[in-house]
Design goal:
heterodimer; A: 615 residues; alpha+beta; Phenylalanyl-tRNA Synthetase, Chain B, domain 1; Phenylalanyl-tRNA Synthetase, Chain B, domain 3; 5 domains; 5-stranded antiparallel sheet; 17 helices; 28 strands; 26% strand; B: alpha+beta; BirA Bifunctional Protein, domain 2; 8-stranded mixed sheet; 3-stranded antiparallel sheet
């Protein structure tokens, strides 16, 4: 969601903070603001709006929050127009209960044209393309109030509009010319002969252009589940569908509607030539919530006065209906007073006391909660499942035997046993649709990978879940699989671990852990490691050094490790020490392995490090 | 030097100085340095040595080996020569001992477990194939709730069975199974699944860590203080973390911890998308509806929960650029720390 500072100030003329502070404050109160930038002399913020705050997909909702936070006035940015009555009514029908509210009116004798520059800039900042004044103003109102709206060219569409679940049209062409195939579940606005608009996307059939002189404009809110299903089904996401999928406030429609009509008449001239159509069959009922003003302190752990709590809720637009007596607080009996609070209609996310508490703490400021008072130790009975102790213990034992731990994909390409395999229904990764029944195929893949990188002498293990089904029952078990390049050593290690394991292909072994005896307690070791991401083959090169005196090989290894540096040195060993009986000199044969270097770079580093360039 | 090695070395050095001929010397050399000799045998036992002692043991063993070589070399000048000895150690390689490694994700998990065990937390787990009820409904995400859009699920049997999309699912099992054993403190790591195409930066399986407390009078101060302790343990005492309002359906109030970008120190850079901060997970006070659904009286008990991803942290720590490296990929471990 983009937010232009100057347009936010239309609702909040007293808002004067620096953009950096506004960015940080918006974030702290829950509207994560990634950054702000300057576009055509406008300061534009980029915000992530959370799914429960549909109201903040418009400037108005964000302005409401900020008016509470900064304790400044929220004003209407235009003079509300008295809508004329006693003219002819519109021929509009609503035949579905998926419409929560529609307001519409006809405007005539308009002069539509290219948008004024302020409007073009506004849309550019929002990443939208300017079309013409009339269309752009409908988009402007959507961004300002978070409520999508639409204008129909009545010379193309007729005035006879029907809000209905589609029953007769098979195809719909959107404003941008996209052709969509319809079925009988799509909420639409039609005339008797043709489909005009989806709930979230206007149609080509009645598109507004610069020759438009007659229009019906409407603001509407629908059943959000229907809009979401329609949007998913038609694989079409629009700015309107993003908003209509949220819980929007039908009570906000008159304000946005009045503002839209005002702007159109100001910018395109013309007159209102019908009564306002207002379909609102089930006005919303606001909840009444019992609120204990001490609770924000109890939940936050810091002192927040009751006065602040009530003042904050009042500024949010809550109605403090009356005082109520509270009988208990937690398991403590009380005889004290609380309040009955009715939240504002725009705040669909407030329905229980916990919601009110969150609002109070949010505006009091999370930054006022100390960060240096963690929980302290408390003796509580240990509920750790014993299998966790077994797994931790086995991992430590395997690491002590020199094995490296790997993790592999739990979803695999092919089943081990087709009869018992569990298949996923909707995995978008065609190469991974079955839940693994054994860890061995994954370890085999790991071995292939290591071979590709020429990793010397691999020995590794994995402990993870394996899956199967018996009838309708899904079964998952913990399994251990091991690989050792030396099969004899694998057998020795398994003996040492006291595991009776199936050996597979000599070098692999696997065992289900669920039936093994489990330790009552185990405190695992913290082992720091040297994991690296290999991007090319490991390159191993030899170097012979002749020295006059005998040196400690380990000192030599450390010396040349430091010369080579750790950035690319995988392993350094001395494979041979030779004394020439004639010269009495000592020859040391080094074997150095390099990682993440190409052949040429590895050779150069090798020759430089062992001072062999001149040879 | 290790006492046992010292004793063995002394015994052999006594033997060596008593050798008379190069043939006797060669026999003893093979006994010590041959393929099946003592030195190789002692090196093969390194795997039995606890990790924290391995390095010292390796160094002692190399010293042991060097000193015996020198003794043999000195004696070789004195014995009657009947053969020509060239190779001093033809059968043995000099190298640091092989050490095994835990996967870096396990490593981080253990660091976190240690923090929480010290506070009296148990470690917990739950199935990976879960029901819609435990993955969504019990976390205050009813059918058709837009919060479900935040998570594209992998279904086993739609709509009932799916692969868990978050470690909060373990929390819902925990609350249901232990509702009668309050108070409770538990922490857990787990694989979680989302229906994502696998590429350099996205994976369908990733790892999360979560901690849950249910007790009387638990507060946001407890939550934020404990989270801060965790971040300082992971990232060091100078880490700067801010705690802000954030929405998750299973908590209220929700808290979002952001760490000041370690790359730009808050100034804004491509890594933090110019925000100056990096989102570190989610947390909050357990929603009263979540407690009630588990059969816990939310008027008496309260609690907090927080979770964070382990993969991104591990990638940053190990300079791993491709998320696929972490699972069945080209992750490898240097065989020893030189």
């Amino acid at each position: 969601m983009k937010l232009i500072y100057s347009h936010l100030q239309k609702f909040l003329p007293d808002l004067k903070v620096e953009p950096t502070k506004l960015r940080d404050d918006l974030t702290m109160i829950g509207h994560f603001t990634n950054y702000f930038e300057e576009i055509d002399n406008e300061i534009v913020f980029d915000l992530d709006i959370k799914v429960n705050r549909g109201d903040c997909l418009g400037y108005y909702g964000l302005a409401k929050d900020l008016s509470v936070f900064y304790n400044i006035n929220l004003i209407s940015p235009f003079h509300q127009r008295e809508m004329p009555a006693g003219q002819r009514g519109l021929d509009i029908k609503v035949t579905t209960n998926k419409v929560k509210r529609v307001m519409a009116v006809k405007l005539s004798n308009l002069k539509n044209s290219t948008s004024p520059s302020w409007l073009q800039t506004f849309l550019k900042c929002h990443g939208s393309k300017s079309i013409n004044t009339l269309v752009d103003l409908t988009n402007y109102i959507m961004f300002m109030y978070g409520i999508p709206n639409h204008a129909f060219d009545t010379t193309k569409s007729t005035e006879n509009l029907i809000w209905e679940i589609n029953s007769k049209f098979k195809e719909f062409t959107s404003l941008d010319g996209t052709k969509l195939t319809l079925d009988h579940s799509i909420l639409m606005i039609n005339n008797p002969d043709s489909p005009l608009s989806l709930s979230f996307w206007g149609g080509e059939a009645c598109a507004i252009d610069t020759s438009t002189t007659e229009t019906i404009v409407e603001l509407a809110i629908y059943d959000r589940t229907t809009v979401r299903q329609n949007s998913r089904q038609l694989k079409s996401v629009t700015e309107a569908s993003i908003r209509l999928e949220k819980d929007l406030d039908p009570e906000l429609i008159p304000l946005g509607f009045n503002h839209l009509v005002n702007l159109i008449l100001e910018n395109c001239g013309g007159q209102i030539t019908s009564d306002v159509f207002d379909y609102y069959p089930n006005p919303i009922k606001l909840p009444e919530i019992e609120f204990d003003p001490i609770k924000p302190s109890l939940v936050s752990g810091i002192e927040i006065s009751s006065d602040f709590a009530i003042d904050c809720l009042t500024r949010l637009g809550c109605e403090i209906k009356n005082k109520v007596s509270l009988s208990s607080r937690g398991d403590v009996d009380l005889s004290t007073e609380g309040f009955c609070i009715q939240p504002p209609s725009i705040r669909k996310d407030i329905s229980i006391e916990a919601d009110l508490i969150e609002e109070v703490v949010r505006f009091f400021g999370y930054q006022n909660i100390p960060i240096n008072q963690p929980l302290t130790f408390k003796e509580i009975s240990d509920i750790t499942p014993k299998e966790i102790y077994l797994i931790e213990s086995l991992k430590d034992q395997l690491v002590n035997l020199g094995y490296d731990e790997v993790l592999s994909w739990p979803l695999v390409t092919s089943p081990t046993d087709e009869k018992t395999v569990i298949k996923t229904q909707n995995s978008i990764n065609s190469e991974a649709i079955y839940l693994r029944q054994s860890l061995i195929p994954s370890l085999n893949q790991q071995l292939d990978q290591y071979s590709r990188f020429k990793l010397p002498q691999p020995q590794f293990f994995e402990i993870g879940k394996v899956f199967s089904k018996e009838g309708d029952k899904f079964i998952e078990k913990n399994s251990l699989a091991i690989y050792h390049h030396d099969s004899k050593q694998l057998i020795n290690d398994l003996k040492q671990l006291n595991l009776t394991v199936n050996i597979v292909d000599q070098n692999f072994a696997e065992i289900i852990l669920d039936n093994l005896p489990k330790p009552d307690k185990y405190v695992p070791q913290i082992v720091h490691n040297t994991a690296v991401e290999l991007t090319s083959q490991i390159i191993t090169l030899d170097a012979n050094l002749t020295l006059d005196t005998k040196e400690d090989p380990i000192v030599l290894i450390e010396k040349y490790s430091n010369i080579i540096g750790q950035n690319h040195l995988w392993r350094l060993i001395i494979t041979d020490v030779y004394q020439d009986s004639k010269t009495n000199k000592y020859r040391y044969t080094f074997q150095a392995s390099y990682f993440n270097l190409d052949d040429k770079s590895a050779k150069l580093l090798h020759l430089k490090s062992f001072n062999l360039l001149s040879l | 030097m290790n006492q046992n090695l010292e004793t063995i070395k002394n015994q052999y050095q006594t033997k060596i100085v008593n050798l008379k001929t190069d043939k006797e010397l060669e026999v003893l050399r093979i006994e010590l340095f041959g393929r099946n000799g003592l030195i190789n045998d002692l090196f093969s036992k390194i795997k039995d040595i606890p990790n924290e002692e391995k390095r010292q043991y390796g160094a002692d063993l190399n010293q042991f080996k060097t000193e015996l070589e020198e003794s043999l070399l000195n004696q070789s000048q004195k014995v009657t020569k009947t053969i020509n000895t060239k190779y001093l150690i033809p059968d043995t390689k000099y190298q640091m001992p092989k050490i095994g490694h835990l996967h870096p994700v396990t490593q981080t998990e253990r660091q976190l477990n240690e923090v929480f065990r010290k506070l009296g937390f148990s470690i917990y787990n739950s199935p990976e194939i879960v029901t819609d009820e435990f993955n969504f409904a019990r976390l205050n995400v009813p059918a058709n709730h837009p919060a479900r859009d935040m998570q594209d699920s992998i279904y086993i049997k739609e709509p009932e069975y799916l692969l868990r999309t978050q470690t909060s699912t373990i929390e819902s099992y925990l609350l249901a199974q232990k509702a009668k054993e309050l108070p409770l403190r538990a922490a857990f790591a787990g694989s979680t699944f989302r229906n994502e195409k696998v590429n350099r930066s996205n994976h369908f399986v990733f790892h999360q860590y979560q901690a849950v407390v249910v007790d009387k009078n638990v507060t946001m101060k407890d939550l934020i203080g404990t989270m801060d302790l965790m971040f300082k343990t992971l990232y060091g005492p100078d880490v700067v973390v801010r705690y802000r309002a954030k929405y998750y359906p299973e908590v209220e109030p929700g808290v979002g911890p952001d760490m000041q970008c370690f790359n730009c120190h808050g100034k804004g850079c491509p890594l933090c998308k110019y925000a100056g901060w990096i989102e570190m997970g989610g947390s909050g006070m357990i929603h009263p509806k979540v407690l009630e659904m588990a059969g816990i009286d939310s008027k008496i008990w309260s609690g907090f929960a927080f979770g964070m991803g382990l993969d991104r942290w591990t990638m940053a720590q190990k300079n791993i650029k491709d998320i696929r490296t972490l699972m069945g990929g080209n992750l490898a471990y240097k065989p020893n720390e030189l």
